[in-house]
């Protein structure tokens, strides 16, 4: 089994963010709204907002794997 590094995970999240439309804003609660480019920079810097985005994306991907998002 290959161990995935933090850098690999951040690169995956950045690739997913790049797929968003350019005009889209993501709200991070009290932290405010962020553009796609801002989020990519935050994930690359691995700051608190970037870490939160990575955590959210990983939760989403895990839920897909477990089938929680599939409709009947």
How would you describe the overall organization of this protein?
It is a single chain. This protein is mainly α and 72 residues long. The chain has one domain (6-66). The chain contains three helices and two strands; from the N terminus they run H-E-E-H-H. The protein has helices spanning 6-18, 36-45, 48-66; strands spanning 25-27, 33-35. The chain has a two-stranded antiparallel ribbon. Helix 1 (6-18) packs antiparallel against helix 2 (36-45) and helix 2 (36-45) crosses helix 3 (48-66). It is globular. The mean pLDDT is 89.
Separate helix tally: 3
Specify the helix fraction band: 55-70%
Termini separation comes to 32 Å
Strand arrangement in the largest pleated sheet: 1-2
Radius of gyration based on Cα positions = 13 Å
The major sheet is characterized as:
2 strands, antiparallel
Q: Spell the H/E element sequence.
A: HEEHH
SSE class: mainly alpha
- Domain module count: 1
Which word captures the global form? globular
| Average pLDDT | 89
User: Total strand count, please?
Assistant: 2
Note the beta-strand portion.
5-15%
Taking pLDDT < 50 over at least 5 consecutive residues as the criterion, the unreliable ranges are none
